[in-house]
Design brief:
Layout lengths: L3 E12 L2 E11 L2 E7 L6 E6 L4 E4 L1 E6 L12 H11 L1 E6 L10 H14 L3 E7 L8 H6 L4 E5 L12 H14 L3 E4 L3 H13 L5 H6 L3 H18 L3 E3 L5 H12 L4 E5 L1 H5 L3 H6 L12 H12 L5 E2 L8 H4 L21 H10 L5 H15 L17 E11 L19 E11 L2 E5 L2 E2 L15
Parallel strand pairs: 1-4, 1-5, 6-7, 7-8, 8-9, 9-10, 10-11, 11-12, 12-13
Antiparallel strand pairs: 1-2, 2-3, 5-14, 14-15, 15-16, 16-17
Helix pairs in contact: 7-8, 8-11
Bound molecules: (4S)-2,6-dioxohexahydropyrimidine-4-carboxylic acid and zinc ion (ZN).
Length: 457
């Protein structure tokens, strides 16, 4: 056999199916051509010695706000995917609450074109469904939307929520595309009412923000969407499930045979709402970070299979918009969201170190399962021969502290994880056989990343 392009050797290869020590992967033309024991891999033009570290299929983060087009001052494809590369993330899916919103094929195509021009890693994009564009669902499908998103409650970008009637109709139409419809699942009437009441009462602290979007708003929205999906046979997804109550509702839906998938985010598993008292509006996000009891129940539901995917909800804003200089200022003057692409792997690996999940389970939830849920598997999320050579190499024992958020590669660096200590870090990121991040440097070229087509499952 002639030499292949790249061999990564001397690592423990981990997939959901298990682990192989002393192993590696061989790559030709951006595609995996062999996986196996290091000593049986072919010769290569370039050999990467992973020095005993762990190699997994590239991490897939199917929930990021990259803000392009229109809000590039917060983040853009280049900066978000630079952070992704540095965080060990090889595929991202961008959210549609940009300016303009991604509600028609021309906007989707523009978003893809911008990504093709500047992304460091591979990407997809969700299309939004509002009251105005139900008729465009087939065209958005044709134009390559990874899936569809409905915002049920008010959120950043003020995308108006459709009525329940329109949501049912949207489910019927999305079902015809074979793709999945995800929800920002908070009951808008509950959160709008509670926020107005709190404002009236002068409850202006960061913790008041968290309490203004109560768990019941999430749980009710999940239950309602599951009921609608049961009626319409649509495949639905619950983004950013923040509470045990919400995750348990997902589990009940799965048990009833509804095609419902769900994700949670590292911050809901790591913090409790106390972080709003400690770090103020920096930790403000919607849905909010919950109390200790809800977090414990979320963990239990996660362990019991309610949660499919880990994703960040990477939501960049400027220091000014977040009110970083005065983090305990009036919460209603701040904005929701913070970045996460460079802390998601460290957070999850820290949980692995603590024994809360195995490496195999981590890879399943953070690579394989999101790729399956969003129609990218096995091209993404696997180490099968013939698929894209996307890998994340991690040092699961490396202890470190995010001492200064300005070390991050994104435009926005606001994160409640500043000052937190982790065990585990991505050390090398490979996208279709090209090293895009190694030894602390983003080495890939802007524009290398390409869009991933979703296939119907
Ligand atoms: O906190 C949030 N920020 N939640 C969302 O749903 C949207 C996001 C954003 O776009 O900033
Ligand atoms: Zn989001």
């Amino acid at each position: 056999m002639t030499a292949v392009d790249l061999v990564v050797s001397n690592c423990t290869v981990v997939t959901p199916a298990g682990r192989v020590p002393d192993a590696g992967v061989a790559v030709e033309d951006g595609t995996i051509v062999a996986v196996g024991r290091s000593d049986r891999l072919p010769d290569a033009d370039r050999t990467l010695d992973a020095e005993g570290k762990v190699l997994v299929p590239g991490i897939v983060d199917a929930h990021i706000h990259n803000r392009e087009p229109g809000l590039e001052y917060k983040e853009d494809w280049e900066s978000a995917t630079r952070a992704a590369a540095a965080g060990g993330v090889t595929t991202v899916v961008g959210m549609p609450n940009t300016d303009p919103v991604i509600d028609r094929p021309e906007h989707l195509e523009r978003k893809f074109d911008r990504g093709e021009a500047s992304a460091h890693v591979d990407f997809g994009t969700f299309a939004v469904i509002t009251s105005e564009n139900l008729h465009r669902i087939p065209a958005l499908d044709e134009a390559g939307a990874t899936g569809f998103k409905i915002f049920l409650g008010s959120t950043v970008g003020d995308v108006p929520a459709p009525t329940d009637g329109e949501v049912l109709e949207a489910m019927e139409r999305v079902r015809e595309t074979g793709k999945r419809l995800g929800f920002h699942e908070e009951n808008g009437e509950i959160i709008d009412y509670t926020e107005a009441k709190f404002r009236e009462e002068g409850r202006n602290e960061p913790i008041d923000f968290a309490h203004s979007r109560p768990v019941i708003a999430e749980r009710e929205a999940i239950e309602r969407m599951i009921t609608f999906a049961e009626e319409t046979d649509a495949a639905v997804h619950m983004y950013h499930v923040s509470s045990g109550s919400g995750a348990e509702a997902v589990a009940r839906g799965k048990a009833r045979g509804v095609d419902v998938t769900a994700e949670t985010c590292p911050h809901y598993l790591w913090f409790t709402e106390e972080v709003l008292r400690e770090k103020g509006n920096v930790a403000r996000i919607q849905p909010p970070i919950r109390d200790a009891e809800e977090r414990a129940r979320l963990w239990r539901a996660f362990e019991d299979g309610a949660i499919d995917c880990i994703a960040t909800d990477h939501a960049p804003h400027t220091d000014d918009e977040k009110g970083v200089d005065d983090p305990f200022g009036n919460t209603w003057d701040s904005i929701s969201g913070f970045v996460g692409l460079e802390t998601e792997v460290p957070v999850m690996l820290s949980f692995v170190t603590e024994g809360r999940l195995t490496l195999e389970e981590w890879v399943y939830h953070h690579s394989t399962r999101p790729a399956q849920v969003w129609g990218m598997y096995p091209q993404k999320g696997s180490l099968q021969v013939g698929t894209d050579a996307d890998f994340t190499i991690v040092d699961p024992d490396h202890e470190w502290t995010l001492a200064d958020r300005h070390e991050l590669h994104s435009k926005s660096t606001v994160t409640p994880f500043e000052g937190e200590t982790f065990v585990g870090k991505a050390t090398t990121t490979v996208v279709r056989g090209e090293v895009v991040y190694e030894e602390g440097e983003v080495v890939g070229e802007s524009g290398y990343g390409t869009r991933v087509s979703s296939v119907e499952d």
